[in-house]
Design brief:
Layout: E1 11-14, H1 19-27, E2 32-35, H2 40-50
Parallel strand pairs: 1-2
């Protein structure tokens, strides 16, 4: 992995919702697993948690 990518957050958006699918996303390096159709409020909550205040 490259040093510049250590702080990149990756969100999986998929139609697969079983626990095994979530584990596979995590094993692949995704930080979050969201099932389609994505709930905008849930995505907003994830993004709000990532906001950095100066």
């Amino acid at each position: 992995s490259e040093p510049w990518g250590q702080n990149v957050i990756i969100v999986a958006q998929t139609g697969w919702s079983q626990n095994d699918d979530k584990r596979k996303s995590q094993d692949a390096g995704f930080n979050f697993h969201m099932v389609k159709p994505v709930d905008p409020a849930a995505l907003e909550k994830i993004l709000a948690g990532l906001m950095v205040t100066p």
